[in-house]
Amino acid sequence: xxxxxxxxxxxxxxxxxxxxxxxxxxxxxxxxxxxxxxxxxxxxxxxxxxxxxxxxxxxxxxxxxxxxxxxxxxxxxxxxxxxxxxxxxxxxxxxxxxxxxxxxxxxxxxxxxxxxxxxxxxxxxxxxxxxxxxxxxxxxxxxxxxxxxxxxxxxxxxxxxxxxxxxxxxxxxxxxxxxxxxxxxxxxxxxxxxxxxxxxxxxxxxxxxxxxxxxxxxxxxxxxxxxxxxxxxxxxxxxxxxxxxxxxxxxxxxxxxxxxxxxxxxxxxxxxxxxxxxxxxxxxxxxxxxxxxxxxxxxxxxxxxxxxxxxxxxxxxxxxxxxxxxxxxxxxxxxxxxxxxxxxxxxxxxxxxxxxxxxxxxxxxxxxxxxxxxxxxxxxxxxxxxxxxxxxxxxxxxxxxxxxxxxxxxxxxxxxxxxxxxxxxxxxxxxxxxxxxxxxxxxxxxxxxxxxxxxxxxxxxxxxxxxxxxxxxxxxxxxxxxxxxxxxxxxxxxxxxxxxxxxxxxxxxxxxxxxxxxxxxxxxxxxxxxxxxxxxxxxxxxxxxxxxxxxxxxxxxxxxxxxxxxxxxxxxxxxxxxxxxxxxxxxxxxxxxxxxxxxxxxxxxxxxxxxxxxxxxxxxxxxxxxxxxxxxxxxxxxxxxxxxxxxxxxxxxxxxxxxxxxxxxxxxxxxxxxxxxxxxxxxxxxxxxxxxxxxxxxxxxxxxxxxxxxxxxxxxxxxxxxxxxxxxxxxxxxxxxxxxxxxxxxxxxxxxxxxxxxxxxxxxxxxxxxxxxxxxxxxxxxxxxxxxxxxxxxxxxxxxxxxxxxxxxxxxxxxxxxxxxxxxxxxxxxxxxxxxxxxxxxxxxxxxxxxxxxxxxxxxxxxxxxxxxxxxxxxxxxxxxxxxxxxxxxxxxxxxxxxxxxxxxxxxxxxxxxxxxxxxxxxxxxxxxxxxxxxx
Length: 936
Hints:
With about 950 residues, the protein is α/β, with parallel strands linked by helices. It is about 50% helix and about 10% strand.
């Protein structure tokens, strides 16, 4: 082939190859036994050229290769590289990968739980650890050349997202940032911001999945393709699915049949055939179907922990076995090796033997309520192909390396903490992104189960949309404020916060509104010119007209409200047997009150509490109709014209009874002519304000203008546009400098509480700077007031738990059990301090609804933390806490983390025992299941 080139071309090609072979990328590529994708090469070349990169690519596409190249560059250049991840499980996994590739001596690990070789040139850590290093000015930051932020789209996370922005803003300019993200729809916008705050940043977006994904719907015994095979990018929904959905929607309901709507025999036969084809398969049936189609291993996403456990049990009861004898033996061997450190008495409490039986059969659950060790084992066995069916909550989709051949979604609805809501296209993409293992599978499969009311078009919209926008959740906190002021002073801190992605997005959204304001202002000039009057100031005249109109409207409303009150009062006086004249409406005329109805307010009816805006009398009209009337039928007060006795035998449902009683009504009162309700004098007639305004109008020079009404129409348009423009300007004001204004309010509150004095951080402020967490200020105030001074380690653990714990479901009915004595008093004092802070936040307009401020401490974990720190057994603690082992371990780890912060922040001069007892509490909590769970 080279013979086709001229000598000059062959020389140029040889020169190019020589240059490429001399690059760091060439030596890096030799470390892998597969070729790199174009987007990986492009990102690596940008890095080697000294640029920062943002790589947005689908799950499983291999974007971490770019992060590993940053590690390679750092080692080659003699610099440090920090590789950050959002969760400890990912940090542990990445540490193992890098240590295997580069050697354990060159790679370290730093999480809240573990510190391994932290002085190594490459350190894997959680993002919070790096943030804390930056604020503390750690020596470990010396010679830092690269920071990899894996799963950077976490900055959208409501509770933790701010940490990512803090790191990006505060890293030294000399550090090259590598941002790895899932496919997001606004990668360019995020890249623009990175370019602003970090310098030259290359944005590389790849939509290509290395393993193609096929979408299916499982209905009854058959698996249908979601899309028809066809040419072009726009795929058509499978007509079979559309037809099935239409047939199911047209199927008569049970209520229809009860109402006696006859079905022809042909309809019944069609429904029987249809029903035999469409149903939602059971969980064991789904796994068997996937196994028969060679689509295992599979992850089935169920948005409930209890349902994940129930699914495993259902498969076991159905006799499902996915492993042969050899695989079963290997599973048992691995499980026993990984759980050897767990005492036998704890294994029973943790449901070990039932869990092991499922694993041996190749079936497991995976959710946050599981013991971390158990989750790790499930992950390892799944990757090894020894567990073939996993039932998981959506937390598994967040970064853990567990690719599968197929992903199953039982429903397209999940509980979001407040209500059942449809999953978003972004969530669908994240979940189904697990399907298809690179280098193993030729294709991946996403399977959605048919459910009643299923819409193929809705699913096609989820599968075909790539809308997963990255939205900042950045908000200043008390801890952030004192750390920033200490390092940069107030003015520079304010400027730094205005560079946040949150402010960048807010300012960008203002551009369109500003453009509309400019157009409105041009329109206002035109309207002002058109309403100009040669006789005087028409703007002033128009203002008087508006004031007069507003006053007349206000008085009219008051009059109508007064009449409604009088009418309701008259209705409440009615009794059964009163003959009345209904003044208006469809049933106007003579009527007999059968039941006076209910008084205004709330009543406890058969549907629970029902609201009534006034009495609703049940009447018999002279035309023999029995109707329940409403307040709208009585715009004026009504009085009884006559009284009549209602026979005990009267039955409102009997036409004869109605006819007889209506006849008696006409005989008794048909001749009575009701008094006409006389309208009183209008309130406007005697209103001094209206009299004054009318006099001013008549005296105004513009009142005599022949074009007055024409000018008035332009004035009305001017006023309307002026009002709209004012609303737009308020929206702009609300969006610009929002972060800085929140920071200003926080600084004012901290100054009031003597944490800050201008640019000086007081001793109290320096203590707050060491306390990270949602209730940082409350923890600082407890230390300041000596609330925890006389507590023993177990009591201190109970109190600190209130700073971190949040119940999954709020239950206000039952007060949580708490330790008695000093701990109970201290917890009570913590709640009182929170009340004081809450009042201060309200005074300084710091709004918890916006994610800023201190939530109320939750005492729901205090008893469990106290029991465990006191040495009680796992069985007793879990039984009393009514909490899964995984949740218990996670909350214990978070309590340990905050206890470590308190030990560092508390006085060390001997005036307080809090620091010493905090360290003891850590030791007392860090035992048993908490100690041998390496992942928090």
